[in-house]
Amino acid sequence: MLKKANKYIIPMVFAAACFAGCKNYKATTAEANIKLPDTFTGNTDTASIARLPVKQFFTDQNLINLIDSALGANPDILTALQRVEVAKANVRFNAARLLPQISATANAGVEKYGDYTQNGVGNYDTNFSPNIDGKRRIPDPVPNYFLGFQSSWEIDLWGKLSSQKKAAYARFLASQSGFRLVITSLTAQIAQSYYQLLALDTELKIIKKNIGLQEKALEIIKIQKLGGRATELAVQQFQAQLLRTKSLEYSTRQQIKETENQLNFLTGNFDKPINRDTSINSATLPGVLSAGVPSQLLLNRPDVQAAELELAAMNADIKTARRSFLPSLTLTPYVGYNAFKSSLLFDPGSLTWGVLGGLTAPIFNRKALKADLQRTIAESKVAVYNYQKTILAGFQEVSNGLNGIENYNKFYQLKQEELKSLNNALSVANDLYLVGRANYLEIITAQQSVLEAELDLANTKRNIFLSAVNLYQAVGGGWR
């Protein structure tokens, strides 16, 4: 009766382990519940600039050349490309785990059995048997030679290995989206720096023009001083204004150099001249700057795609972690030649083969598996929140870009009117000063106001372009 009971102990223990594993195998997925608005504020056009290639969105050939140069030499681009290769190799690795692992094996060894061991007595007794000839007599010590193939194959009973492959493939796609994200970001950085450079060039022209005007004004006031119509105080005030404007020139030159260096860095160069049209006023962007509908963010923005794919990968990881509680079946077949004499290794009688199947289920390491499952679930929640954050950030960036273009355009129009009025005021101040009805401080103030307005106008035009570039990036353009 006891023997009969022992017969069922092992199957019962194994069945209990399987049941315990199944208890932990519950379908769990991490999902993001986020609903985008139907439209962006103030935008109803469904034609998105995200679908415009770089060469259609940007019309400046110098800028296009910079972007093309960066795509082949920028370190971030090259690094992102290698991350794609790493993810691709990981997909191949996980796909290979579904197949038998076969290895060619050649080994040799020797063993001396003790005289009072089972093998020692058995080998000694066997050599006296009349049923064996000289070839079959066992030497002492006993060599062992094997040449053949050995294999190990885990049968994917529950889809654990398939889930790992799905996770790896999702991360491969995410790495491709990450590569596109780097392209989009790099395109935007180059365009922003380029338009900043054009604006600085324009500022430098304005400053030089004003330096020339102020130098003439200083000469006039000096002549008037000699004639008794002006004081030394007026001369010093005009001199101070001129020196201030000249200092702006060198500050602007430094900013130009730093911006050129930034563009060289982004394009993978050291100190290469940056070809450009030196007037931001001649730069143009597409006439229609539309963001499309918010749902297109999910299709166009590489960072949203990457976050979504990472979420899919984490769900596959959860399935893998849960299926780790279930039993795994491993087959270990082998075939080859095995003999205790090297001269007999390739004898037909030395051919050997076999297969062993093993079914294993976790028992004592279940706490580690539970901890791994909890970690995976927590990481999946992080992926959900990251996905939601990416969508919210994208919506905000698009809204900022759309409103920035609209508001800066209105600001630019008003600044143009302001500059026109200030130029008229300066002309009137000069006329009044010549007839003695205005003092030199009014001329200095008028000149300073014109200079500031001209610089503001150039900066506003730059902000219009930067808003357009930001919008292009925000809707996911630039990587096609």
Q: What do these coordinates show?
A:
This protein is of the alpha+beta class and 480 residues long. The chain has 2 domains: 19-98 and 157-326 and 366-474, Outer membrane efflux proteins (OEP), CATH 1.20.1600.10; 101-155 and 329-360, Outer membrane efflux proteins (OEP) (Single Sheet), CATH 2.20.200.10. Helix content is 63%, strand content 9%. It has helices at 2-7, 9-23, 54-57, 61-73, 75-96, 118-126, 160-226, 232-266, 297-300, 302-323, 366-434, 440-474, and strands at 101-111, 142-155, 328-331, 334-339, 351-354, 357-360. Strands 1, 2, 3, 4, 5 and 6 form a 6-stranded antiparallel beta sheet that branches. The longest helix has 69 residues, at 366-434. It is elongated. The model has no long low-confidence stretch (mean pLDDT 85).
Quick rundown:
This protein is of the alpha+beta class and 480 residues long.
The DSSP helix count reads 12
Tell me the strand percentage band: 5-15%
* Quaternary form: single chain
Please indicate the count of domains.
Answer: 2
What low-confidence regions span 5 or more consecutive residues with pLDDT below 50?
Answer: none
What structural class do the secondary elements suggest? Answer: alpha+beta
Span from first to last CA? 76 Å
How much helix, percentage-wise, in residues?
Answer: 55-70%
- Per CATH, the superfamily of the largest domain is Outer membrane efflux proteins (OEP)
Radius of gyration: 40 Å
- CATH class of the largest domain, named Mainly Alpha
Second CATH tier, the architecture of the largest domain: Up-down Bundle
Question: How many beta-strand segments?
Answer: 6
Q: What is the average per-residue confidence, as pLDDT, rounded to a whole number?
A: 85
Subcellular location: Cell membrane
InterPro entries: MdtP/NodT-like, OMP_efflux
Coiled coil: 405-432
Main location: membrane
